[in-house]
């Protein structure tokens, strides 16, 4: 059921007071105006702290304060009353008491009070008096209709739309997570004075999305396109991802498949955990959002639990999508005693179990022993993969990946020998060795050679040596608790 239908149902059910959680202030007001016109011949009153109570453009005297405005609503014979930004006033005991009084005054009259806020912040005393409705951000269908209306308009002005149906759908997908106003502004900006509408507008809309997500303070919209071909090794993990490539398609729903919930990749630092999560979004053609738990706890986006809940709701509004939680043990843990940490853990556990929004959680962890057992049980994540140091064949593949990325001719190098020499090296260590060798060669204005790499290898100590005890401990934990991301046997 849509939020619009829920509001309509609440009105017909004669709920005296409704709490609407939404960023879409304008759309909610227009919706209530439409309903009031049908029920009361245009009897919508709107209150804000800056303008008091208004009916249309007319201000009503003596209603500037919220207590006076609630008194006005209590004494009305009929009508809808919308109170904006209500979360700012519910810490006042007088306001709480006044809402309770209003409830009893209006419950047997054709009067409805709507309290609106971007967050649900109901005090305990009022929870039994309000029906709560989440009025979500625009759906894909609404955004698709908006995109088509813009394209139709600019076509009339002579612009040529070279996008196919799939491209138009991708435009709507790129706008998911926007309010309707933000979507309008973004389309106006990227389509302004364009004579040819092609795939370039998709990249521009993604950049707009990146800016919108920055406003959240804790979310980042990732636009890097990394594929599974950019990963050396990890064939079991790749196979798992490929088999779920069509997981969000209508055909999967018709087949009876549930949406995948999430994936936890734990293991040794520098062995491809983060790049694997990035490749999921590319492979499945879904938007990727990174949630920074350090920023959540920093308080720059408000109280941590509020920032966290708001971020999840934003990602849900852009679903289907991939939510990336990097080093999840640093933010979702039970090792701290702070109240906000406990509440975030509790909310996240419930959300992981219950959410149906098409959000796939891709989490990585280095210290999985810090994670609470409840997070690791089946039903939260679909699978837990352990990423070990790459084996010999995987190291060959790592060299091929990075040589190909930097346009280095692999035929000039003995890859089996390089792989043998780098036994115990992680993928990121091999990459950094290649980069360092390239700098040496570049400084001497020549191509990189094997000798350059050998010098780097000789003067470097890999992580497997400096952190041997920690790696042994991680391997021991993962032995019978996680699936191996690679089929190649580890070199102990």
Describe this structure in words.
- This protein is an alpha/beta fold and 492 residues long.
- The chain has four domains: 3-134, Rossmann fold (3-Layer(aba) Sandwich); 140-215, Orthogonal Bundle (Helicase, Ruva Protein, domain 3), CATH 1.10.8; 228-384, Rossmann fold, CATH 3.40.50; 392-423 and 427-461.
- The protein is built from 21 helices and 16 strands.
- It has helices spanning 3-12, 25-40, 66-75, 93-106, 140-156, 165-175, 180-191, 200-214, 235-243, 250-255, 273-284, 293-298, 304-317, 339-354, 373-376, 392-405, 415-421, 427-443, 450-458, 463-466, 468-478; strands spanning 17-21, 44-48, 52-55, 58-59, 79-83, 111-117, 131-134, 160-161, 196-197, 219-222, 262-267, 288-291, 321-325, 359-365, 383-387, 483-484.
- Strands 4-3-2-5-6-1-7 form a seven-stranded mixed sheet, with helices on both faces. Strands 10-12-13-14-11-15-16 form a seven-stranded mixed sheet. It has a two-stranded parallel sheet with strand order 8-9.
- Strand 2 (44-48) and strand 3 form a beta hairpin.
- Helix 6 (165-175) runs parallel beside helix 8.
- The protein is elongated.
- The mean pLDDT is 87.
Q: Main attributes?
A:
492 residues, alpha/beta, Rossmann fold, Helicase, Ruva Protein, domain 3, 4 domains, 7-stranded mixed beta sheet, 21 helices, 16 strands, 14% strand, elongated
Helix-strand blueprint:
Blueprint: H1 3-12, E1 17-21, H2 25-40, E2 44-48, E3 52-55, E4 58-59, H3 66-75, E5 79-83, H4 93-106, E6 111-117, E7 131-134, H5 140-156, E8 160-161, H6 165-175, H7 180-191, E9 196-197, H8 200-214, E10 219-222, H9 235-243, H10 250-255, E11 262-267, H11 273-284, E12 288-291, H12 293-298, H13 304-317, E13 321-325, H14 339-354, E14 359-365, H15 373-376, E15 383-387, H16 392-405, H17 415-421, H18 427-443, H19 450-458, H20 463-466, H21 468-478, E16 483-484
Parallel strand pairs: 1-6, 1-7, 2-5, 5-6, 8-9, 11-14, 11-15, 12-13, 13-14, 15-16
Antiparallel strand pairs: 2-3, 3-4, 10-12
Helix pairs in contact: 3-4, 5-6, 5-7, 6-8, 7-8, 9-11, 13-14, 16-17, 16-18, 18-19
